[in-house]
């Protein structure tokens, strides 16, 4: 009996982690293990306690015939900020200054484990936003967007600059890049977004906010609405930003190409209390 | 005592799943739980049995003072083929035929859970390849590449068509797209790939193989070597392919735009025994 419980706990833990934000009925687990619902219910209680204690996430349980359990990945404010602070320190390494005053971040974005962790911060922050799709801009927003979407159990819609023909008809809009003032085009395949969608925008970098503004406008073209926006890094910008409702994980206040000095700190998420509690 | 073991099993399961292909010492777990190494060792034995029985993966254990455990995500041939067959059936839906004879796949690629599952097939297949980095081509190869890389605990290097200036100096090569015969350029940031890397190429679609061939040539420019290549879908192509050593998960043998008929079946991975056992 002791071993059977052990086996169930291990398998249920794996199953719940792999199915975030999906309601799993007690009946499912009870049949999977040939165990009484009361035993399964006890198992869930144990897992719930460990998940909460270790900061893995919450298990929302519902009672009754349709009773079930739903795993909500979370990250505490302390853990989130510690993780972000750690990345900020890495980003202040002088060798990251690139010609033109850019900051090399591709090693951070190219690290799937980091992206999963940062994605969990956003998944935790936006879990109550009611989003039913995550939208991002190719290329560098994609890894973070997938990390967020996988933990919220949502599909991803990828907006692109070029107009590829391999995805059927597109909706395209022109937008003004806020920092360079250039007119650019962004496109999204018509099939990628259903009318009436609730969109969570995730991107890697924001300066004046032109790209995010563009994605908001594009969302309207699909008779859909934006329920939140999160960026990995925002650059402090001299002029007014083109968007207001967004959160950033990090803030870049300056890259001094000559002195090779970079100032990065925690972003707006850590400046005020969580929005969607 | 019973509860303490339960708690350890749940937390260890979560920890191991989140750290695939990373050796974790018994000492680490023993200190994390304030438990004797012998107890931790017993816990690992229980988890190992469940992971194997449920097809979650293998736990490789090493004994001695430096003793530890390493989680290798795997998927059985049967489970892999069942998953792929299921996607093939979905892809044969006539409404997926696009003008020009293309096949709409963005909903599959836009589903993070699917990508994780397909990534696990490749992670299982290539786990002994000795790769130390996953390379892919923007845009649509990225989700699968990250899914593979996260389960092999490797970084991702993203090759791109455009020459963005925000990642420092680039290495660019011209290559001939095998199907359209057009000359194109692909670039990779110099910092994205260390000399002497062992590269696993992952991409979404292959027709004549020009893009994969290009990535192989680009890898050589970095004094690195390709240890494997995997594509989500290969199109059966009238001419000789430009690459030989690759595996595909699915094979597209025809899109009949007029009759709205699509023929998709399991790819070359399922035509012969696994290569890297």
TrEMBL record, chains A, B:
Bacterial purine repressor N-terminal domain residues: 4-73
UniProt superkingdom: Bacteria
Chain ranges passing through the membrane: none
GO BP of this protein: negative regulation of DNA-templated transcription; negative regulation of purine nucleobase metabolic process
Keyword annotations: DNA-binding, Transcription, Transcription regulation
Pfam families associated with the record: Pribosyltran, PuR_N
GO molecular function: DNA binding
The keyword Hydrolase belongs to this UniProt entry's keyword annotation: no
Residues of the Phosphoribosyltransferase domain: 112-248
Subunit field text: Homodimer.
NCBIfam families: purR_Bsub (TIGR01743)
Family statement: Belongs to the purine/pyrimidine phosphoribosyltransferase family. PurR subfamily.
Protein name: Pur operon repressor
Organism: Alkalicoccus urumqiensis
